[in-house]
Design goal:
There is one protein chain. With 171 residues, this protein is of the alpha+beta class. 39% of the residues lie in helices and 17% in strands. The chain is built from five helices and five strands. The strands form two sheets. A three-stranded mixed sheet has the order 1-2-3. Helix 2 runs antiparallel to helix 3.
Length: 171
């Protein structure tokens, strides 16, 4: 589906929590976090809060134990309309709870704009959690795109039959 968070929001997370997002920007074929944050901008606040809670917890543990805690997110993405956060390394109840709460909250926040009013998980060709406003905008775009599509175009030969040469784009 190809939905990624805006680069400036991704950079905010990576800059603020470098220990959690060590693999960001690396080769995506070897490190899934190299694909970036595979969800809409609307979940930025959820991810930021989850990251802050985990980073603060790890910092406190490292301070008290005087040992480096190995933890990193391997993937942050949308799947079946909710946020999924995959990680490896150290784990305890506080980390599990922070991740679980973020995943649960994503059911109630629009993935695109972050609104919490009139949010529902919808099937837009794939399952997505959207507010009414974003859903209606997305539905309008999809309708326009469908009416503008040329069907049965043979791009390799660059030929169009008579019917395909005459099409109109209706809004």
């Amino acid at each position: 589906r190809g939905l990624n968070m805006k680069q400036e929001l991704e950079k905010t997370l990576v800059t603020r929590f470098p220990q959690l997002y060590q693999d960001y920007g690396k080769n995506a074929l070897q490190y899934p976090m190299g694909w970036g944050f595979q969800c809409g901008d609307g979940w930025f606040g959820i991810i930021y809060t989850m990251s802050r809670r985990i980073a603060d917890h790890i910092e406190a543990l490292e301070k008290s134990s005087k040992k480096k805690i190995d933890f990193k997110f391997t993937t942050i993405k949308e799947k079946y309309g909710t946020l999924r956060a995959y990680y490896e390394g150290f784990c305890d109840d506080i980390i599990e709870t922070a991740v679980d709460q973020a995943e649960i909250l994503s059911n109630f926040w629009c993935e695109l704009c972050g609104d919490v009013v009139d949010v529902t998980t919808r099937d837009t060709g794939y399952i997505q959690t959207l507010c009414d406003k974003c859903f209606n905008v997305k539905r309008q775009i999809k309708t326009v795109t469908k009416s503008c599509t040329l069907n049965h175009v043979d791009l390799t030969k660059n030929k169009l039959n008579k019917k395909q040469r005459h099409y109109s784009c209706r809004k």
